[in-house]
Design a protein that fits this description.
alpha/beta, Carbamate kinase, VC0802-like, 2 domains, 8-stranded mixed sheet, 6-stranded antiparallel sheet, 11 helices, globular, binds adenosine-5'-diphosphate, binds aspartic acid, binds magnesium ion
Length: 405
């Protein structure tokens, strides 16, 4: 079979782990599979490079920052290719551009426009293992563009789709997708499988185990993803289109995120067009808004609350003064230290009682709910960031997730 394997930063953190990954890849090739490898930067290298840039200037030029960050993945491809060659397996390191990953010039958050996988395919056909730098592509002019944090997952899925691979394997320091982050909940259980929808909700609600755009892309092309260990041989978690019948009516997993800020605009005159007046300037500033709640109006005045990522708070606040003036609101209040917990499972909303059970569990743990948002397969509560770990544990217990299927 043709498989694209992605190894994350922890899995290639040092020379020993790189040699370990090389051994795994080689065994897979010897077993008769065609393997394309995508790697992330070693350990925390990307964070270190960002800090380095910030020590030069608080506002690095986006093009040059991408140029710098891309070196992290470039180190990994060279080292892994050397390690494979040292084992006698031919391999070739390829940058995003050499692997034919083309993006628009949206530095720092590049979207893949197309993949021209000819070179990768040719290397495979010559018996060499292509080792591709994740998280990066290039514009038609040859400028390097990075795909956003965690973007190596996206590189792997995009390549797998372009090559018509049988599946993408996401190899990590955990053995699969668990019922909650095992770092927070030691009794969390590894799931056998998840639907694309479930994984997409988990990823979008903060579960860092997969990048949400990678899951979205895989779902469009119905590419199966196996989340599996890079360290031990153990069955992983298959993300695919089907769900077991008896799984339909239950909470599958809990996601959490401690990166939430909230802005409330007070006493907004309630008339058509206010929402557009508020959210258009935020969108133009590149700030994405998550949960939005508008209260019922009293005396034709309403309060409107929305959440954003904490990193966008300062920029959002600087837009708010003008926005308040334009909608005729007296002012706004901001809170920066929030988080969210979500329960996710296909069809939970068609079965009654999940919301009540979630709210009761949080209440019993003494946790105040600030805002609530839902989708067909998800319930999310915005709470104090400091209480997120307690909330995850309380929900894991309340929904009996430590129990087997
Ligand atoms: P990689 O280095 O492969 O990109 P990440 O560090 O991005 O890996 O993601 C793996 C981490 O995701 C794990 O160490 C784990 O703590 C965290 N995580 C969060 N939620 C989950 C979950 N539901 N199941 C497994 N891991 C999770
Ligand atoms: N190295 C990049 C990051 O840390 C991309 C990735 O690991 O997926 O965000
Ligand atoms: Mg990651």
């Amino acid at each position: 079979m043709l498989v694209v394997q992605k190894y994350g930063g922890t899995s290639v953190a040092d020379a020993e782990r790189i040699r370990h990954v090389a051994g795994r890849v080689m065994r897979r090739v010897h077993a008769g599979d065609q393997v394309v490898v995508v790697v992330s930067a070693m350990g925390n290298r990307t964070d270190e490079l960002i800090d380095l840039a910030l020590s030069i200037t608080p506002d690095p030029d986006p093009r040059e920052l991408d140029m710098l960050l891309a070196t992290g993945e470039q180190m990994s491809i060279a080292l892994l290719a050397m390690a494979l060659r040292a084992l006698g397996q031919e391999a070739v390191g390829l940058t995003g551009q050499q692997a034919g990953i083309y993006t628009r010039a949206d530095h720092g958050s590049g979207r893949i426009a197309r993949v021209q996988a000819g070179r990768v395919r040719a290397e495979l056909d010559c018996g060499r293992v292509p080792i591709v730098a994740g998280f990066q592509g290039a514009t038609d002019e040859g400028d390097i563009v990075t795909l956003g944090r965690g973007g190596s997952d996206l590189t792997a899925v995009a390549l797998a789709v372009a090559l018509g691979a049988d599946r993408c394997e996401n190899c990590k320091d955990v053995e699969g997708v668990y019922t909650a982050d095992p770092r927070l909940v030691p009794t969390a259980r590894k799931l056998t499988d998840l639907t694309y929808e479930e994984m997409l909700e988990l990823a979008t609600q903060g579960s860092q185990v997969m990048h949400n755009r990678a899951v979205e892309l895989a779902s469009v092309y119905e590419l199966p993803i196996l989340v599996t260990s890079s360290l031990v041989d153990a069955p992983g978690t298959l993300i695919h289109g089907e769900s077991e019948l008896e799984e339909r009516n239950r909470v599958r997993a809990i996601a959490h995120d401690t990166d939430v800020a909230k802005i409330t605009i007070r006493r907004v005159p309630d008339r058509p067009g206010i929402a557009a007046t508020i959210f258009e300037p935020l969108a133009a500033a590149g700030i994405s808004v998550d949960t939005i709640v508008q209260n019922a109006s009293e005396d034709n005045l309403t309060d409107l609350t929305f959440t954003i990522s904490r990193k966008d708070l300062r920029r959002a606040e600087s837009e708010m003064t003008g926005i308040c003036r334009d909608v005729g609101a007296p002012g706004f209040v901001a809170a920066g230290e929030l988080g969210k917990v979500s329960i996710v499972g296909v069809g939970i909303q068609t079965a009654p009682g999940y919301a009540a059970r979630m709210f009761r569990a949080l209440f019993n743990a003494g946790i105040n709910i600030e805002l609530i948002s839902t989708s067909e397969i998800r319930l999310t509560c915005i709470i104090d960031a400091a209480r997120v770990p307690d909330a995850v544990r309380a929900l894991h217990e309340a929904f009996e997730l430590e129990r087997g299927d």
